[in-house]
What does this fold into?
Amino acid sequence: MSDKVSLHIGGQRIENFLAYSIAADIYTADDVFTLELANPEVPIEPGKKCELYINEQRELTGIIDRVDHSYDKKTESLRVEGRDLCGLLVDSYAEDFFDEEDMSVKALAERLLRRVPFINRKDIIYQENIRGRSKSKGMSAVGIFDTEQAHAKPDPGRTIFDILKTYSARRGMMFYALENGTLVFGKPKSGGAPLYHLINRRAEPQNNNVLKGSFVRDISRRYSKILVIGQQQDIDEAASDVNVTASVDDPTFPFYKPYVFVDNNDEISPKLAAQMLLEKMKWEGYQLEYRVTGHSQNGINYRINEMCHVEDEVFGVRENLLIYRRMFELSKKDGVTTILGLGLPGVIQ
It folds into this structure.
């Protein structure tokens, strides 16, 4: 049975598409969708909230950004573009300026999101194992991967997403959105039983479920050793007492290549900051991508933040990896397919 895709706007349902592309990425702030329709059944206007369903399961909640309506003597077509609800947070700038230094993540999120339309704050997930509160005062608030911003407070000119992302990173977590629009403060999955299986065996090609694959291993931005130097700013002690260093090694790196990161934020420990940075670099240097037929496996739509077992004899890969990106597509060339991006589990960015 072929996968069924439908667009829902204001109680109306649209099902006839010439082509579509529906993205979800745990590391991308605003996931994009594009739909092409012929002879659209109902009017579609920018600014409307919409939902995309795959096999009767809601896989994206977003806003219509752009509608391109065209025709000629033979045909009429409509191209619709939009983003998920997180796109609202990427576009919306904070207009409430206050001192958030000792606020919990939940309190900060509820305050910043209170006037953002379409987002239900009661549905936000705050993972229970995340502390989410500043443990000390007087520290600069730069995130461990955000060296340009000196503060994580709602200064004028910063977007809501940027503030929440930076504030979360200070506490060793991520702020991201699931496919259905649910906002999450926490960490990506780091393990567990795989929900999907991708197979590419040379000897048994009849059992393979992969149409196309690519595997990138890149050490150009990886290092054998990460050294983090942190300095607390507002403590009346000798500099030798307040400089804190930590280092982690990557035994999988082929030669000695050190990296030094200066972080004046001690909201998370230098040791944790070094480990997070090392994992991020390893993740960037290990990227798998597959194209598969259809949008589901064993009746379950492909989803981000789920584990997938990969058995690929061509690439020599046999392990459980995290689906961090998926793209549902319909095109004349490939038909109904899904692109899956896989990487190392549990990585915070």
Observations:
- The radius of gyration is 23 Å.
- Residues 224 and 252 are 8 Å apart (CA to CA).
- The chain has five helices and 21 strands.
